[in-house]
UniProtKB/TrEMBL annotation:
It comes from the Bacteria. The chain crosses the membrane at residues 142-163, 169-186, 257-281, 287-308. SMART domains: AAA (SM00382). The lineage of its organism: Bacteria, Bacillati, Actinomycetota, Actinomycetes, Kitasatosporales. It is a multi-pass membrane protein. GO terms for molecular function: ABC-type oligopeptide transporter activity; ATP binding; ATP hydrolysis activity. Keywords: ATP-binding, Membrane, Nucleotide-binding, Transmembrane, Transmembrane helix. This is ABC transporter ATP-binding protein.
Length: 604
């Protein structure tokens, strides 16, 4: 193999290289098949010059040529067929590897705690899962092609030595030049490919941001500045792309010059040996072909370049694949549990900042609990660890006496339901979107409609053209309507613990009061935890948890906490009237700027 040192050698220890090795192993049978076909084709290529040389010698000496001529035709046919099969297998292996790495990265992204997944912008994720995944998937067949390309020139050099050692020595004199060409190519292109993919991700991220804020850009007349901001990295992208192709072109050009020079040099030495009577005319013909095959060491620049790009792309994908994943146990929750939640010594650290510190909390089963505090106090972090959307950095969270880390996935997600400020609706119809954890049928539909009535969503759902059969993406919904559907989904799923994280922020006061009444009188959940911003919500709860700077400042009924000035300061003055719902927040899957809510839902 070509010796690679320095940065290229260190690259073999990089996460991208390790992921590439995993891809090769994952695509094992297909990669082995590509390698086998390519090696067999190389063997046919190595045998052909010797057979052609024998045919020529037989013709010159008026010998029988039928058998060697038939063998020559068979070898050439086999080479063509094997190359075609290898090309067909290469596409299949690359597609399989791409699908595997995409599935792996997407599974880790969806299974990671929300705070960890949020480190990646939508544009960066899209680039990694599309272009980078496709380039990484091309790695296994490129590795097989490279592994098969190396024995061909080595075998050709050995064949030259068998014909005449002097012809092999003549070729070996120029071999270091080819090695230097490949070494320079690997070193130069590796850095350029990594930079190119990074800048490409920057452009995609900026474009995603601009699309999310399209209405604001149009209203403020910021089209030209935003266009310039999105396209600002393009010169650097073009520069890195030019460097990549320049390195590839230089390697191909150098090898293209060296190949005829080496072939001519070997032929000159072979001609002298022919004149001396050491080799035959057929041997000289075979030597010329073997010299061309041996000089084809430069042909490894193609698969080597593909492998370099695949390693760089795999390095970017490792960021997603390395995301921490919530592991689940095998225990089931007690069937008669009341929904009691206990937090013991819980600490949460995100990006080096302590969000929750030494939280000890007991939530009685069957209670309605309001979590209040100023912005940044840790309310959403507390809600996340209570329902195990994320694990605490330290401490334990128990539901009905069972540590949430020990509960199996199915039991936990059936027992705990979430509703968020900006929900995302999945499924082909609203019925499917509102019943993600229930089976289809009349019972499921009845439960969905009951939950929709409790969330005050049924009146506007009935006005839709197809009612509950309307596809979520086809429904033009306001922000409040979308929140009510998110509440309906949580109500339909709720069994033991229901957590509302700012899930009524877009509702008008009257609708919110109806939802609060349903929450305490209609919803089946035994325990309800509400992240609250309004005084009325806290006043209607059985228990209030007051957070301040990541610690529990107080726990108790609202009437006992409101004596403290700091507690009263948490709430803004009550609304003087009915707050209108947000306009133009249709269908799920978009950010508020673009007219709808971005992805944010339990589904993990």
């Amino acid at each position: 193999m070509v010796p690679i040192r320095g940065p290229a050698a260190r690259a073999t220890r990089s996460p991208g290289f390790r992921l590439l090795v995993r891809l090769v192993r994952q695509s094992g049978p297909g990669t082995i098949a590509v390698l086998g076909c390519t090696l067999a084709s190389a063997a046919a290529s190595l045998a052909t010059p010797a057979v052609v040389g024998r045919v020529l010698d037989a013709l010159l000496h008026h010998g029988a040529v039928g058998r060697p001529l038939g063998l020559c035709a068979a070898l050439m046919t086999a080479e063509v067929v094997l190359d075609a099969v290898a090309a067909r297998l290469t596409g299949g292996v690359a597609a399989h590897a791409t699908a595997w790495v995409r599935h792996r990265a997407m599974a880790r992204l969806l299974g990671a705690p929300p705070g960890d997944a949020a480190r990646f912008t939508p544009g960066s994720v899209a680039t990694r899962l599309t272009a980078n995944a496709a380039e990484a998937g091309s790695g296994p067949p490129a590795a097989a092609a490279l592994a098969a390309a190396l024995p061909l020139p080595v075998g050709a050099v050995i064949a030259l030595a068998v014909i005449d050692p002097w012809t092999a020595a003549a070729f070996a004199a120029g071999l270091p030049l080819l090695v230097l060409v490949l070494r320079a190519f690997a070193r130069t292109s590796s850095h350029s490919v990594a930079r190119y993919q990074h800048i490409q991700s920057q452009v995609a991220s900026r474009l995603g941001e601009a699309l999310s804020g399209a209405r604001t850009i149009a209203a403020a007349g910021l089209f030209a500045p935003e266009r310039d901001r999105v396209l600002a990295p393009l010169p650097a992208l073009a520069e890195q792309g030019a460097l990549m192709w320049r390195a590839h072109g230089k390697a191909v050009a150098h090898s293209s010059v060296l190949m005829p020079l080496l072939t001519t040099w070997v032929l000159a030495v072979g001609g002298l040996r022919l004149a001396a009577g050491v080799i035959s005319v057929g041997d000289l013909l075979a030597a010329s072909r073997y010299a061309a095959l041996a000089a084809g060491l430069g042909a490894v620049a193609g698969p080597l370049g593909t492998l370099v790009r695949a390693r760089a792309a795999a390095g970017r994908l490792t960021g997603l694949i390395a995301l921490p994943e919530l592991g689940y146990g095998r225990r089931a929750l007690p069937p008669d549990g009341a929904g009691t939640v206990d937090l013991r010594g819980v600490c949460v650290v995100r990006d080096g900042r302590t969000v929750l510190r030494d939280v000890d909390l007991h939530v009685p089963g069957g209670a309605t609990v309001a979590v209040v505090g100023r912005s940044g106090a840790g309310k959403s972090a507390l809600a996340a660890v209570m329902g195990r959307l994320a694990d605490p950095t330290e401490g334990h969270v128990l539901l009905d006496g069972v540590d949430l880390r020990e509960v199996d996935r199915a039991s936990l997600r059936q027992a705990v339901a979430f509703a968020f400020a900006r929900p995302f609706l999945f499924g082909d119809t609203l019925t499917a979107a509102l019943s993600p954890c229930t089976s289809a049928g009349g019972a499921a539909l009845a439960r969905v409609r009951e939950a929709a009535r409790a969330a005050s969503a049924e009146p506007f759902v009935r006005l839709l053209p197809r009612g509950y059969d309307t596809p979520p993406g086809a429904a033009s919904l306001s922000g409040g309507e979308l929140q009510r559907l998110g509440l309906a989904r949580a109500f339909a799923q709720a069994q033991r613990l229901l957590i509302l994280d700012d899930a009524t922020s877009s509702l008008d006061t009257v609708t919110e009061q109806r939802v609060q009444h349903a929450l305490t009188h209609t919803v089946r959940a035994r325990t309800r935890v509400v992240v609250a911003h309004r005084l009325a919500t806290a006043a209607g709860a059985d228990l209030v948890v007051w957070l301040e700077n990541g610690t529990v400042r107080g726990v108790g009924p609202h009437h006992s906490l409101e004596r403290h000035p700091g507690y009263r300061a948490v709430f803004t003055p009550p609304d003087s009237g009915v707050r209108p719902e947000r306009d133009h927040a249709p269908g799920p899957g978009r950010t508020p700027e673009s007219g709808a809510a971005p992805t944010s839902g339990p589904g993990r």
